[in-house]
Design a protein that fits this description.
- It is a single chain.
- This protein has 90 residues and is an all-beta fold.
- It is 0% helix and 70% strand.
- The chain is built from no helices and seven strands.
- Strands 6-5-4-3-2-1-7 form a seven-stranded antiparallel sheet, with no helix packed on it.
- A hairpin with a 4-residue loop joins β4 and β5.
- The protein is globular and about 35 Å long.
Length: 90
């Protein structure tokens, strides 16, 4: 595992999270990213994201992300990463 800096997730539905990357694991074209973050309303979360990059057949990157709040509220989404983005900054 490697340690990095920050992550930002935003999608058209309005879900948005800024986080600290605590661990990244990459094998070939798949990365698993996890850490802690904050939603746009200030709610703290723990998140995990999996990104499968450069899929030539469908022409998009695939992703899955989920997070959980301290009160047990869970958000999960996945699909082609076309409307929105996940950015990881060292």
């Amino acid at each position: 595992m490697h340690r990095f800096g920050e992550m930002h997730f935003k999608e058209d539905s309005g879900h948005e999270m800024d986080g600290k990357v605590r661990a990244v694991s990459a094998t070939r074209n798949t990365a698993t990213i996890s850490g802690t973050g904050t939603l746009a309303d200030g709610t703290p979360v723990t998140y995990t994201a999996v990104v499968l990059g450069n899929m030539p057949v469908i022409g998009a990157n695939q992703f899955a992300i989920s997070w959980i709040t301290a009160t047990g509220s869970v958000f999960q989404t996945s699909g082609a990463l076309t409307n929105g983005y996940i950015a990881v900054h060292p």
